[in-house]
Amino acid sequence: MKTLEKIGSKPPWLVGKGWLHLDHLAVSSLPLVVVTLSLAGVAFAREGAVQAKQIIGTVEVLGPDFMRLTVTEMGPVITALMLTMRIGSGIAAEIANLTVSQATSAYQVFGGKPKRDLVLPRVWAGIVACVLLVPIGVASFLFAGTAAVFFWYDVPAEEFLFFRYLDGLDLACAMIKAVAFGAVIPFIAARTGLAARGGSGAVGKAAATAVVHGTIAVLFIDLLVAAVIALLRDGVL
Amino acid sequence: MVNFLQGLLMPVRWIIPAALLLKKVLSVRPDFRETISQLEHFGYQSILIVVAAGMAVGGIVAVHSAAYVANYSAGELAGWAVGYATLREVGPLLTGLLLAGRVGAMNAAELADMKVRGQLRGLEALGLDPLPIVIAPRVYAAMIAGISLFSVAALASLVTAVIGVTAMSGLKLLPFLFSLHDGTHLSYLFVGQAKAGLFALVVGLLSTHEGLKAQSGSSAVGTAVNNAAVASAVGIVTVNFACTWVF
């Protein structure tokens, strides 16, 4: 929290510099997101269909719940976990490398503010990357899952995907998660990188720590947002 | 476009190196003391983190299960949903991805650091083969730790999910526990454990492979960790995909 106060309490917010990182964070992560979410979508849909067939006797009934769970849960979370692996460890290693080679200290000597200049642009880029990649991940998951159900159970897409079952809260849930994950993954990674001390071992340790802390943060944010949305849906909040 | 197409072939790219490393690891007898030491390092020291992740997964399952109980009045299916999701499907996948970070990234970081500092070459100069005393123990320890930690995570998520569902949906604890008992087949636990074992093996092999690929400089260590985390995550999702045919 102290780091957040130090780097984000005053302008400049360095939004513009975030675009410089966007190619690295979003475009390079695109194949990873498409491949993993498609594979996960097939597995999830097929397992769900097997269970639905055994318990209820029909696969079509799975469609609305498959879609809602994909949009609100599986799509955003698996995309975020993949980004934690890819950009979380990458940012932590990059900044830790600068820290252990004293480059951040030298930057500070010349009047630069490493905490602000290294962290904020990456956080902005992370938010934009996640907001762009979560819908792509959700679409890959849905497409692959629907294709799997059609392939194994002859259920066409129009009898499986019913977009009318999605409401504004579901879409809001996905977008809130995307923004939160996009902010927290680079923030934790950059903070871990800045805290690195020592030699090459410290760089590796920082990258590994960023992945673990990022994963835990993603899971708890997911739980928090899901709980708040559930309370909103029930009219408690 | 070329990079994108190369990226799509990611799961295939790691199969051959992982298979070759597995063959090498199986051909030697790992050093017992080093295996125990790595097991303590990867396993025992990860328990708290895994419990935290398991509780988060259990909470997520509880929120969604409670919503389905409320929407469809399907109280009798709630036990099945919780058992199936935590033990067989979502639980193993999310826990596996955490282990990719905790065990895989840590293993790659340490091996890459040893490689960059010339410690592995030093062992060879002393006439010692790093395979049985450094590499194989890490792969075995990663696998045993992965399986054990999955059990811990599964227990934590199951307990959290039971508490969460009963608190949120108004179901009474005892009937819900009966529903959990009736709806959860023992096979869910075995399938979950088998998946966890395969995930852990993939994480151990790919992170070791990426760690040993590091060349020189501190940036190489960071790159190795980054590659190991991505490779492990892709490996886990690919194995999870393959498991839908096997189990």
What attributes characterize this protein structure?
heterodimer; A: 237 residues; mainly alpha; 8 helices; 81% helix; B: 247 residues; 12 helices
Radius of gyration of chain B: 20 Å
Radius of gyration of chain A: 20 Å
- Oligomer state of the chains in this structure: heterodimer
Q: Averaging pLDDT over every residue of chain A, what do you get?
A: 87
Main beta sheet of chain B: none
Distance linking N and C termini of chain B: 36 Å
In round numbers, the mean pLDDT of chain B is 86
Structural class of chain A: mainly alpha
Reported for the largest beta sheet of chain A, the result is:
none
SS class of chain B: mainly alpha
- Percent helix of chain A, as a range, is over 70%
Counting DSSP H or I runs of 4 or more residues, the number of helices of chain B is 12
Number of structural units classed as domains of chain A = 1
**Unreliable sequence segments of chain A:** none
The biggest chain-chain interface is:
A-B, 61 and 64 residues
Low-confidence stretches of chain B: none
Number of helices of chain A: 8
Structurally, the number of domains of chain B stands at: 1
How would you characterize the overall build of this protein?
The complex is a heterodimer of chains A (237) and B (247). Chain A is mostly helical and 237 residues long. Chain A has one domain. Chain A is 81% helix and 0% strand. In chain A, helix 1 (2-8) packs across helix 6, helix 3 packs antiparallel against helix 4 and helix 7 runs antiparallel to helix 8 (200-234). The longest helix of chain A has 40 residues, at 114-153. The radius of gyration of chain A is 20 Å and the shape is elongated. The mean pLDDT of chain A is 87. In chain B, 55% of the residues are buried. The model of chain B has no long low-confidence stretch (mean pLDDT 86). Chain B has helices spanning 2-8, 10-13, 15-26, 32-42, 47-72, 75-88, 90-116, 119-125, 130-169, 173-183, 186-212, 218-246. Chain B is an all-alpha fold and 247 residues long. Chain B has one domain (15-22, 29-242). In chain B, helix 3 crosses helix 11. Chains A and B meet through helix 3, helix 4 and helix 8 of A and helix 1, helix 5, helix 6, helix 7 and helix 12 of B.
